[in-house]
Amino acid sequence: MAKNRTPLRYPGGKARLRPYLEKLISQNRLYDAHYVEPFCGGAGLALQLLMDYVVTAIHINDLDPAVYAFWSSVVDETDLLCTLIADTPCTMDTWYAQREVWKNPTHSSKLELAFATFFLNRTNRSGILDAGVIGGKLQNGQWKIDARYNKDELVARIEEIGKFRSRIKVYNKEALSFLGELTPQLPEKSLVYLDPPYVEKGPGLYLNHYDELDHRRLAEWVRSNLELPWMVSYDDHGLIRECYDGCLEASINLPYSAFGNSRRGTELIYFSEGLQIPDMSARKSRYHQPWQEFCK
To answer: How far apart are CA 4 and CA 45, in angstroms?
Structure first.
């Protein structure tokens, strides 16, 4: 199993796709490519590909100012962020203070917002920033606030990411603006992976969720304007089948855990024309081939 590189917990994270992405990159001769994520979130997959030397550089973008502040500080203020994590006690007093920073970020520095984002992500249920604290405010639950807050391990992850800072670019833009500005500047040897907010569960999981028009606009732009190799993953929903009808299509069954509930769900994966899909018989429209063998 690939090493977990991200210090964040993220619902719907795609780090488990790393074995398949490496196969796809190899078959399409995209080793040492630039790798782009317009919806980076926890960036677990991007970091694995970079830190295992599958790709040469990553461009990670998130519209959420808190998520951006965290990744920007990981790259630009690694030591200061690690010191904050090491020196700040994991207590309910700290939780209340960091929640206030996150809710009212205009009075805080980027580093302060980064730490607040990290702290809430590691101490809240399922890593969701506006969810409740693990164990409840009275801390009378089965698990306590520090159940997912292993300081030494998390600091080590951030320090390791910092060693790759020259190969990591962090952005805070709306996805289509980000793609429109960045992709014309990238070499042909690049891969764009889009993992937008879920259609069905998105409003309950992400602060910057999409409505139907957003999903349609994204699909239209990607299919009409994105000239670099790309792939898109989504929850299995009729709207998405319609938006990407005619594209190379596959499905994957992945485990999810949110608010203490674990389940497996089917996701749809779409690919740009011309990408070679390894070890699969992907066809156009409404054909689904499980990927479990790549994600064990």
So the answer is: 9
With contact defined as beta carbons under 8 Å apart, do 236 and 244 qualify? no
Q: What pLDDT does 77 receive?
A: 98
pLDDT tens, residue by residue, 250-294 = 888 775 554 455 555 688 999 999 999 876 434 444 433 443 333
Cβ 198 vs Cβ 205: under 8 Å: yes
Per-chain mean pLDDT for the chain: 89
How far, CA to CA in Å, does 238 sit from each of 136, 140, 242, 268, 290? 37, 42, 6, 11, 18
Q: Hunting for tokens 């994270």 — which residue is that? A: 13
Indicate the domain borders of the chain: 15-63+173-294, 75-161
Is residue 263 within 8 A of residue 254, CB to CB? The reply is no
The partner residues of 170 in beta bridges, in order of sequence, read 60
Angle ∠(233,203,7) on CA atoms, nearest 5: 65
User: What is the dihedral angle through the alpha carbons of 236, 239, 240, 242, rounded to the nearest 10 degrees?
Assistant: 120
The DSSP symbol for 263 reads E
Give the pLDDT score at 252.
80
Distance of CA 185 to the CA centre of its chain: 23
Cα–Cα dist 102/66, whole Å: 7
CA distance 159 to 9: 17
DSSP type of residue 7: S
| pTM check: above 0.70 | yes
Could you tell me the fold of the domain covering 15-63+173-294?
Rossmann fold (3.40.50)
Strand order in the sheet with 168-171: 168-171, 57-61, 34-37, 190-194, 230-235, 261-271, 248-258, 283-284
CA 32 to chain centre: 21
